[in-house]
Amino acid sequence: MLCAEGNLEDDLGNSEAAAAILRRAATLFEGTAETFLWAKTLARLAYTLVDLDPAESLRIVEQAAELIPLGNPRLVWSTEVIRINGLIVYLLGFHLRRGQKAEALAVCRRART
Fold first, then answer.
1. How far apart are the C-alpha atoms of 76 and 80, rounded to whole Å?
2. pLDDT tens sequence across 31-76
């Protein structure tokens, strides 16, 4: 139920609340050794955090990727998409914080191709 609630909060635009709920769910799955559900929840948490905290999103998606059981290409693909999105947002923020608008635009252009 926590995962569904976290997903719904994120869909409604309440990303911070969603992240808190998904963290609780991930902790529960970790504690009960539900590796697949733990990995899936961490992937959703990483997705939720891409815009809020891209560095944390990248750390969490890496953890999720390490937990994915063999033979689950859909979840592997999903975590790779989240990783790419996180890297793009992180690079944009990096350049914008330094006032490098042209470099940020170049990142956007490269991401579109």
1. 6
2. 999 999 999 999 999 999 999 999 999 999 999 999 998 889 999 9
Q: What is the pTM assigned to this prediction? A: 0.87
d(CA 43, CA 58): 10
Token reading at 15: 């990303």
Per-residue 3-state assignment (H helix, E strand, C coil) for the chain = CHHHHHHHHHHCCCHHHHHHHHHHHHHHHHHCCCHHHHHHHHHHHHHHHCCCCHHHHHHHHHHHHHHCCCCCHHHHHHHHHHHHHHHHHHHHHHHHHCCCHHHHHHHHHHHHC
pLDDT digits (tens, 9 = 90+) for 6-32: 999 999 999 999 999 999 999 999 999
Closest C-alpha among 41, 40, 45, 48 to residue 69: 40
Q: Which of 21, 73, 66 is nearest to 44 (CA)?
A: 21
